[in-house]
Amino acid sequence: MGRPMRFETDTAIDKAMDLFWQQGYARTTPQELASQLGIGKGSLYNTFESKHALFMRALQRYSEIRLQYLTDLFSAPGAIRPRLREAMTVLAGVGEHQRGCVMVNAEVELGTADDEVTRIADSLFTGIESVFRRAIARGQESGEFGADRDAGTAASQLLASVIGLSVLVKTGGPSERLGIVLDGIIDEL
């Protein structure tokens, strides 16, 4: 009989996600992951099968956290514009850190070489776009936004802006400039 697991899997995935977010997939070694999780390499492989499998679980967890955040943010009544700005700020990491978005980083690093990364990223991006579309439509219905723009097109543009802002955050763009860009994007609605 094997020894019982001494760590909580979701906590371990969160810690791994943080390390992948800081260093990227290629620069993160299995030994660094085991150290970050406080387990041996054998336990890492016994629990998660491989570095790649753990990375996929970390990306999936990131997606779930981000989509839940957006669902919670837009479920309450009230003005949509400030919540869209907040969502874009959080998703891109503006002013929070210089890591960008872990999913955008993964797509840049591995997207064309790893279909599973692309599938998870596409699912997240589709989910974000869908939340944005519903929020914009609500803002149009309430009169907060003009009804002359298609909500789906506007949502696609906001998603593309989040992805671009995330890259700028990752490459060290100044928060002040990024804030001005965010204001301009949201004001266009």
Model description:
With 189 residues, the chain is mainly alpha-helical. The protein has one domain: Orthogonal Bundle (Tetracycline Repressor, domain 2), CATH 1.10.357. It is built from 9 helices and no strands. It is elongated. The relative contact order is 0.12.
Query: How would you characterize the largest beta sheet?
Result: none
The third-level CATH topology is: Tetracycline Repressor, domain 2
The 3D shape can be described as elongated
Estimated share of beta-strand residues: under 5%
Overall residue-averaged pLDDT value: 92
CATH architecture field: Orthogonal Bundle
* Class per helix and strand makeup: mainly alpha
What is the number of beta strands? Answer: 0
Radius of gyration: 18 Å
Task: Please count the helical segments.
Answer: 9
* Portion in helices: over 70%
CATH level 4 superfamily: Tetracycline Repressor, domain 2
What are the segments in which pLDDT stays under 50 over at least 5 consecutive residues? none
- Terminal CA distance: 61 Å
Total domain units: 1
CATH class: Mainly Alpha
Order of helices and strands: HHHHHHHHH
What is the topological layout?
Blueprint: H1 9-23, H2 30-37, H3 41-48, H4 51-75, H5 81-92, H6 102-110, H7 115-142, H8 151-170, H9 175-187
Helix pairs in contact: 1-2, 1-4, 4-7, 5-8, 5-9, 6-7, 7-8, 8-9
